[in-house]
Amino acid sequence: MSDQGSSYPQDETRPEPPAPGPAYGQPAYGPPYQQSYPPAQQPPYGQPPYGPPYGQGAPDQVRFHQPGPTVEHPQATLAFVLGLLSVLGLTILGPFGWYYGNKVIAQIDQDPREYNNRGIAMAGKVLGIIGTVFLGLTVLLVIGAIIFAVAASSSSR
Fold first, then answer.
1. At a CB cut-off of 8 Å and minimum separation 6, what does 57 contact?
2. What gap in Å lies between CA 63 and CA 76, rounded to an integer?
């Protein structure tokens, strides 16, 4: 084979690649960049380090939201249980789970500081909707079976 068709001449020397430089983000010379911070200052003697304890401010300060004790809504669990039972086979309970879920969510949304458990109520509502859909499909299936049975019995006479 001949080197006549080669695109690289054999007698020329290639240039050397450049030497590797400093790592990305590092200065070209010297140690890595270090920032010095001033020493931490302590508060004067007798002063609290970070202000007054939580909930104890100056009397002239306006407090917009005081967290108070919230209680679980008494019907949130009922809505969840009704919705869950409607999905697990007792489809007749679906509309009740849906109704109680809506009712509890509306009461919690009126004053969210009074009650909690909105997530449980929402789950009961959604499961109640699913159970209601299952109930509707079951009713349609039963009606279709009755119509089919009546049509089959009248055609055999």
1. 63
2. 30
Q: Which two tokens stand for residue 66?
A: 């005081």
Q: Indicate the domain borders of the chain.
A: 73-155
d(CA 74, CA 70): 12
Q: Tell me the C-alpha distance between 157 and 141, whole Å.
A: 25
Q: Give Dmax over CA atoms of the chain in angstroms.
A: 107
Is residue 126 within 8 Å of residue 104, measured between CB atoms? no
Burial 30-46 (b: 16+ CB within 10 A, else e): eeeeeeeeeeeeeeeee
- Least Cα distance to 127 among 89, 156, 75, 153 occurs for 89
pTM value? 0.52
Per-residue pLDDT of 11-23, as tens digits, reads: 566 677 666 665 6
Amino acid found at 109:
D
E strands, 3-148, are 71-72, 115-116
> What is d(CA 132, CA 125) in angstroms, rounded to the nearest whole number?
10
